[in-house]
Amino acid sequence: MKRINLFLTVIILFFAQLTFSQNADEKAILKILENQTIAWNQGNIDQFMVGYWENDSLMFIGQAGPTYGYYNTLHRYKLTYSDTAKMGKLSFDILRVKKISDDAYFVLGKFFLKRSIGDLSGHYTLLFRKINGKWVIVADHSS
């Protein structure tokens, strides 16, 4: 009887730890998106970009097609949203957060830009990877 109780306790602890780590990862990813929203709404594109992988392999796909690299993506954002009127106020609607592997998550959502020059909205998919212990966006497809 003691062995069964010990076995059940180990199983419960294993699944509790698995659930906790997954929830901690999801919380970290959602916090990045929250921080991006705050930065965007303050008109701070540099701070918004903190959520992205600072690497030449970052991939952003938008209306104009793919952009590769962190600095190219930053430049694209600054050209497209050159002032706060163009930036507007951002909000996200997260539709799905899906664990792909221990170091990768897929996020599906909707974005909304409330702007005086005309609102924008669309969908996005994000691929998050845990690189050097930090979650970052490595691919973004926004339309």
Q: What is the secondary structure topology, with strand pairs?
A:
Layout: H1 2-41, H2 45-48, E1 59-62, E2 65-68, H3 70-80, H4 84-87, E3 89-101, E4 104-114, E5 120-131, E6 134-142
Parallel strand pairs: 1-6
Antiparallel strand pairs: 1-2, 3-4, 4-5, 5-6
Mind explaining what this structure looks like?
The chain has 143 residues and is of the alpha+beta class. It has a single domain (2-142), classed as Nuclear Transport Factor 2, Chain: A. 41% of the residues lie in helices and 37% in strands. It is built from four helices and six strands; from the N terminus they run ααββααββββ. A six-stranded mixed β-sheet has the order 2-1-6-5-4-3, covered by helices on one side. Strand 1 and strand 2 (65-68) form a beta hairpin. The longest helix is centred in the first third of the chain and has 40 residues, at 2-41. It is globular. Residues 5-21 have low confidence and may be disordered.
Question: How would you concisely characterize the structure shown here?
Answer:
Helices cover 41% and strands 37% of the residues. It contains four helices and six strands.
Provide the CATH topology: Nuclear Transport Factor 2, Chain: A
Strand order of the largest sheet: 2-1-6-5-4-3
C-alpha termini separation = 58 Å
The parts where pLDDT drops under 50 for at least 5 residues are 5-21
CATH architecture: Roll
Which structural class best describes the helix and strand composition?
A: alpha+beta
